[in-house]
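Internal ticket #5521
Category: modeling
Description: The requester needs a full-assembly model to guide mutagenesis choices. All entity lines are attached below as received. Residue total reported by intake: 428.
Assigned to: D.W.
Attached entities:
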Amino acid sequence: MARVRVHNFNVSLDGYSAGETITLDKPIGEAGALFARFDGRFIHGVDAVDAPITLDRALTSTWGQGIGAEIMGRGKFGPQTGEWADEDWRGWWGDAPPFRTPVVVLTHHRRAPISFENGTSFHFLDATPEDALACAQDLAGDRDIRIGGGPTTVRQFLAADLIDFLHLVTVPVVLGAGVSMWDGLAGVEDRFTVESATSASGLTHQFWNRIGAD
Amino acid sequence: MARVRVHNFNVSLDGYSAGETITLDKPIGEAGALFARFDGRFIHGVDAVDAPITLDRALTSTWGQGIGAEIMGRGKFGPQTGEWADEDWRGWWGDAPPFRTPVVVLTHHRRAPISFENGTSFHFLDATPEDALACAQDLAGDRDIRIGGGPTTVRQFLAADLIDFLHLVTVPVVLGAGVSMWDGLAGVEDRFTVESATSASGLTHQFWNRIGAD
């Protein structure tokens, strides 16, 4: 049975997963410290693991395994807000986005799908989490769905109890401000088992599996 | 640059990785306890990770990533010794061996290659570790080579300093007898950095990266 999974989701010690304002230069706003301390290189996904193979890299490399589609918020696709002023801009990733599957981009402003040679395609959808998931499942066949973020999107799917697996990475930095991972989710841990592991880099990896999901 | 990797290699507390005698019923002899305590299901390899996704499963699932060929000892392929009495027997795994790449089987008794629809093929070779590696590299293109075991094979490649990465799993069992992982390898750790992590199952995962290999 296909699952809904979140991978490599970074959270600061004070609970932020992105900065408040994203720009072309700063895709996750002022929260760059979350990734600067992070040894993941997870965009290599399923094809390779960089040398040396560390615990962080091995854990983050499960990102692509068995995944048939991703759902992301508009801010993960790019910094534009409102109507699409520049449709020539096709995402942060240039000609080879790392996803290699269909990707559903949640936005109130629809536009035509975009396809890339490496198997990635973006489909822009104005939908509830439930409807977006149904669309992603059609695109994914019997493979799993990854909720790719940002934090607002992950939070919506968690609130709707649609997440089966969450790989959370606690990064030992204090951001002081940003987009919260946890707003409105008090007690969410009751629906999951949680396994934790530390790595030499100082990160803590948490594996949340929804009770009854397997 | 392609690397030579070992993954998910189980060792008991007293240093054994297989039983002394393997049979059709007991592919790793009396060392079955090594796997009975092991939550890996690593043969799912690169395609999926079973639910729930545990630390053990995530770590072991890097097994197939970026791998273009495997080298294994004859005992991993099957229990026959000496001349091949039964060439109809095509390995422990039935019609769909989990490898999905070419596999070099080290044996003094050559036989014709075997191919399967899922991309697995077995090539029987009487060769030194160095020559087997050259053959595997031809088969793997620019992808990495996995040394698949058993322990005697891994030990030979370690002794020849041909291993770039070793994922060792210390299993908290005492076997009392078997095929040693460590015979003749005193001080081998000097050639590697080692990162360790424990998991909820009681296993300890060690990531050995050869110094200067990256």
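Resolution: model delivered.
Comment from assignee: Chain B has one domain: 4-80+96-210.
Ticket closed.
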